[in-house]
Specification:
The chain is an alpha/beta fold. The chain has three domains: 316 residues, ABC transporter type 1, transmembrane domain (ABC transporter transmembrane region fold, Up-down Bundle), CATH 1.20.1560; 146 residues, 3-Layer(aba) Sandwich (Rossmann fold), CATH 3.40.50.300; 76 residues, Rossmann fold (3-Layer(aba) Sandwich). It contains 22 helices and ten strands. It has a six-stranded mixed beta sheet, with helices on both faces. Strand 9 and strand 10 form a beta hairpin. Helix 5 crosses helix 12 and helix 7 runs antiparallel to helix 10.
């Protein structure tokens, strides 16, 4: 596979449609442009040849026999027509080759850029609207269209220049009205293209809502609840509302464009009739032959000055807006690593990172007066948060829903920077560490873990920094044994090589609790000094949860651990419990001390006591 394009952070213009197309597929781009421009250059040649052929036909009629040049001009017209057929075939081939090259190189470059985006952009709706516009149909969308529009514009200029030169030979001032109409079409096209693309910007969030609701209505994920609760009609109304709003905005802009185009077409028709009337006098005076008069009439009839030219300019204007978006997309900040930081999905860690520089050891992590708000929000999640984690200690972080427990992991792992305050790792600010160094610290099981449609073994080994199947079977079995899945491999038809997932070919689905244990096993195979378990029992029943907590010592063996939960059955064994409330640590200590204090932790635990005490 050919290497992806190198797209740099710079200002992009419509001329990059030409440059990037040639970088992706130089031969295909060349032949597309060559045959289009050659065909354009042959339009005035064809017009003159048709004029000569008609004149030769008239002389043949007058002579009563074929004029000597009749067949010569006929042969030239046949050759020009054949070239037109060849041009269409070569253009289609070049178009296909260009599409394939853009798919291989340009789409890949956009995808790689998306995987490198800083995590805060992943959760930003405006960024996703921008991505949707830039990355929509990369191989057949704006980039390719911008090159075609540039070629079409140059081809139109060549055609109109040749025909106007012929027309000026008969009446020197006759081209002036045509130039005026072309200028009008240029102005209308530029304005219309900008309006059309701006409309697409405005409805991007509605398109995203329609896509989501379409998945709810048609996808398998919500099929069971959709059937049981019968909310199809309700979801359909929401989809229709979003669709109608987007459709109305687009239609209003498109209708305005069509009205301008029709007005320009009427003007163009009037001027064309005027030119033909003007040519009648030179025709009677013998300055213009009958053949040239007819050929020019046909040529200007086929030359779509308003619709064709205006549509091309309209496209170029929209293309210019697209390249503004591409410039903005490429300017989005990336993670300072070759590998991307992606949304939480199982264990955090690159697929491979042979050049990662792990810390020699983890001594401490300290948060000092940390203040943090999510982008676009005025409410602080943390407001002066202070806490310290020491190596070799087991911690628990508890608090009500929405208190910021999962947000803390995003700050610790560098997915978000704090607004103020400091996060110190071994006494150094977190910003001084590379993303690979941060990855080497953590092995995390998130509450919203991912379910990967690959084999059991691959699901677990996704957590390893360097994947190698050699000698990993025992490692995988040991991790699965620790999380209570020791018998699962023997129950599956192909053991550890069994694909997991209901929609994977030959896949076997497992329960939600088993999926969560797979995610935990994925974190165990990762040699990280700090293990973070974010709601590890969220998908488990009380009995399975108790079994899991009984294995906690084995899971935490040899590592610093941070257990994040609002279910307090396991936190009693933690060395230190942090209680979050109102953006700060409200209480901290061991279970017994916190219970004696009678504060927030005590009230929370008493509210759950019956879950764990029979």
């Amino acid at each position: 596979m050919r290497a992806p394009l190198i797209l740099r952070q710079r200002r992009y213009t419509i001329f990059d449609g030409l440059a990037l197309s040639f970088r992706c597929a130089p031969l295909a781009a060349f032949f597309y442009g060559f045959f289009d421009l050659a065909s354009a250059a042959l339009v005035p040649v064809t017009t003159l040849a048709a004029a000569r052929f008609i004149d030769a036909g008239i002389r043949s009629y007058e002579l009563g026999s074929a004029a000597p040049e009749l067949y010569r001009w006929l042969a030239i017209l046949v050759a020009l027509t054949a070239f037109g057929w060849l041009r269409n075939a070569m253009r289609n081939i070049a178009d296909l080759r260009l599409v394939l090259a853009l798919r291989a190189r340009y789409r890949t470059a956009l995808t790689e850029k998306r995987t490198r985006l800083q995590y805060r952009h992943v959760e930003d709706a405006r960024t996703w609207d921008l991505v949707k516009r830039v990355a929509a149909n990369p191989e057949g969308g704006r980039l390719k269209a911008s090159y075609f529009h540039l070629v079409d514009l140059l081809a139109f200029a060549v055609k109109i220049a040749g025909l106007l030169a012929i027309l000026a030979g008969a009446v020197w001032w006759a081209p002036l009205p045509v130039v005026a109409v072309s200028a009008l079409a240029l102005i209308l096209g530029v304005r219309g293209g900008a309006r059309l693309y701006e409309a697409e910007r405005e409805v991007a969030h509605l398109d995203r809502r329609c896509d989501y609701l379409s998945e709810v209505l048609l996808g398998r994920e919500a099929a069971a609840e959709r059937t049981v609760f019968g909310f199809t009609a309700f979801a359909t109304r929401m989809w229709s509302d979003a669709f109608e709003k987007a459709f109305t905005r687009r239609m209003r802009t498109r209708v305005r464009w069509y009205l301008n185009a029709y007005a320009g077409s009427v003007t163009n028709l009037v001027i064309w009739v005027f030119i033909m009337v003007v040519l009648l006098a030179p025709l009677r005076a013998g300055l213009v032959t009958v053949g040239l008069f007819i050929a020019l009439s046909q040529a200007f009839t086929r030359l779509d000055i308003v619709w064709g030219f205006m549509d091309t300019v309209n496209g170029l204007s929209a293309d210019a807006e697209f390249f503004r978006d591409l410039t903005g997309f490429m300017a989005l900040e990336e993670t300072p690593s070759a590998d991307a930081v992606t949304a939480p999905a199982g264990a955090v860690g690159p697929e491979d990172a042979p050049c990662a520089r792990p810390l020699p050891r983890l001594e401490s992590i300290e948060l000092v007066d940390v203040v943090f708000r999510y982008p676009g929000s005025d409410r602080p999640v943390f407001d002066g948060l202070c806490m310290r984690i020491e190596a070799g200690t087991h911690y628990a972080l508890v608090g009500a829903n929405g208190s910021g427990k999962t947000t803390l992991t995003r700050l610790l792992t560098g997915l978000y920077p704090p607004d103020s305050g400091a996060i110190l790792i071994n006494g150094r600010d977190i910003g001084e560490y590379s993303i690979d160094e941060l990855r080497s610290i953590y092995a995390i099981v998130y509450q919203d873990f991912a379910r990967y449609g690959v084999s059991v073994q691959d699901n677990v080994l996704l957590g390893m920094p360097q994947r190698s199947r050699d000698g990993t079977d025992e490692l995988v079995r040991d991790a699965m044994e620790k999380v209570g899945l020791g018998a699962l491999a023997g129950e599956l038809p192909h053991g550890l090589d069994t694909p997991l997932g209901r929609y994977v070919p030959h896949g076997v689905d497992i329960s939600g609790g088993q999926w969560q244990r797979i995610a935990m096993a994925r974190s165990l195979v990762r040699p990280a000094p700090l293990r973070i378990l974010d709601e590890p029992a969220a998908s488990l029943d009380p009995v399975a949860e108790s079994e899991l907590y009984a294995r906690f010592d084995a899971l935490a063996s040899g590592a610093t651990t941070l257990l994040i939960t609002h279910r307090l059955g396991a936190v009693k064994m933690a060395d230190t419990i942090f209680v979050l409330d109102c953006g700060r640590v409200a209480e901290s200590g061991i279970h017994a001390d916190l219970m004696r204090a009678g504060g927030l932790y005590s009230r929370m635990y008493e509210g759950q006591r019956y879950w764990y005490e029979a």
